[in-house]
Amino acid sequence: MSKRILSCLIGSALVSVHAFAADFKCQDDVVPAKHTPEEQKLVDQFWNESLTYLGQFLKTIETPTGQCKDSAQATVQTYSSQTGKAQTRCVLKYRDVELMAKHLRAILAEPEKAKACFDTQKSYKEFPLYTPSEQTRNLSATAKWLNRPLLTDFYKKMGGEVGKAGLELNENFVAVTSRTDTSVHWAKDVSINGLPTLWSSVGWIPFYAENKAAGSERFRGGYLYAEVMGPWGNLRIKEIDGETVGAEVGMTAQLFNTTYPFHYHHPQEMYATLTKPQCIDQNKYMVMHWDSDQFRQKRGDKGWTVEIDGSNGRWKKWFANTDSNKEWLTYFERNAIHAFHALEGCNQTIENSGLVSVWVRSSAMDNEQSTRPCQPAPGAGTVRDMGPGTKTVCNLRDWKP
After folding, report:
1. pLDDT given at position 20
2. Using CB atoms within 10 A as the burial measure, which of 91, 246, 346, 352 is most buried?
3. Which residues in 346-364 are b (16+ Cβ under 10 Å) and which e?
């Protein structure tokens, strides 16, 4: 054997040993649980589907699309004044995404080590976690064992327009989340159709139900998210080889005939659309940099005030259609202004629409994590009237390095 071949083999072995010798540190609130053999089988199913979800996301962003040779191509602005078109970038060129991918590879390389940081959150104390409906719970034995409270009961008790919208989404949760197509960009089906235990067992959060500043009552009741991995999810890893793990991976569901109004946050974020729309313009979204010349900016003591005027149809050039095939992946840089609009389009009913996505943040452990909805400009109406054509003000806070 030549010295060159031997050197390559040794080099490969060293790389392999290093890749499979990561040091995992769980978050402090991860407490080992004792399970019966029967319960452990349920936990294992939950873990295995979570691992599939994480692995498929990693594989998807590593698979070349568009003009990218070694990465998926993501939309970073739906409208750029310089070109009059969308702006895209190879998503793995971002350092935060590159680091997140590195940590996901470590998890997939040593799943048994990572599993020590996995918590079903059956007895989670930080905040309530829910299962959308009895029908959802019945999708898996694990969900039945976890026996989380139902969001249908939550929204019945809440009542009003928020409660009505919440019931509409959660009573039909399985139908809404099943209307997906993962055949183009995913090697395995990561939707509720392919991973029913994960989608029914993960803890769902009615994020805006009680936030009166977050938009219309229908949107507040018609939006849910869940976190599989991250500081408040099932897989809570604090560090890998001494590096802070910022990956936060989950999913979202938004009811049709709603607008998630303009909003922003410090952490970078990604969305991969799973929903197969009935018609091309059924679901729309926008993302633009906060300092775009389409907006007006004013410096304050602790940040920037950004004024957005989408009136007289100006908003329409900012928004793009989103689907599970062509316009499927987007990346939001820090403090990017973004929104999701599911109002226009074809004849929508609960049976044929909704907007379901894989949702990811890459830096969930630094700076302020809060998502901050923009607010109506003076004289522009109330929060319930907020839409793409409303004059809106976003008060961005400085990012602290």
Report:
1. 57
2. 91
3. eebeeebbbbbbbbbbbbb
Taking alpha carbons only, the member of 248, 265, 253 closest to residue 337 is: 265
180-to-36, 176, 189, 209, 259 alpha-carbon distances in Å: 36, 9, 9, 25, 20
Boundaries of every domain in the chain: 53-397
Q: What is the CATH number of domain 53-397?
A: 2.60.120.10
Contacts of residue 259, Cβ cutoff 8 Å, sequence gap at least 6: 215, 216, 219, 339, 340, 341, 342, 343, 386, 387, 388
The one-letter amino acid at 251: M
What is the rounded distance in angstroms from the CA atom of residue 137 to the CA atom of residue 390?
A: 39
Give residue 376's identity as a one-letter amino acid code: P
pLDDT in tens, 83-118: 999 999 999 999 999 999 999 999 999 999 999 999
331: how many CB neighbours lie within 10 A of its CB?
26
By C-alpha distance, which of 124, 174, 119, 126 is closest to 152?
174
Sign of CA dihedral 177, 183, 188, 193: positive
Long-range contacts of 343-346 (CB under 8 A, 24+ apart): 343/257, 343/258, 343/259, 343/387, 344/281, 344/284, 345/277, 345/278, 345/279, 345/281, 345/282, 345/283, 345/284, 346/277, 346/278, 346/279, 346/281, 346/282
How confident is the model at residue 265, as a pLDDT?
A: 92
**Mean per-residue pLDDT over the chain, rounded:** 92
CB-hemisphere CA count at 13 Å for 27? 16
CA-CA distance, 145 to 159, in Å (whole number)?
A: 28
What end-to-end distance do the CA atoms of the chain give, in Å?
52
Which residue's structure tokens are 């304050």?
300
Cα(322)–Cα(312) distance, rounded to whole angstroms?
23
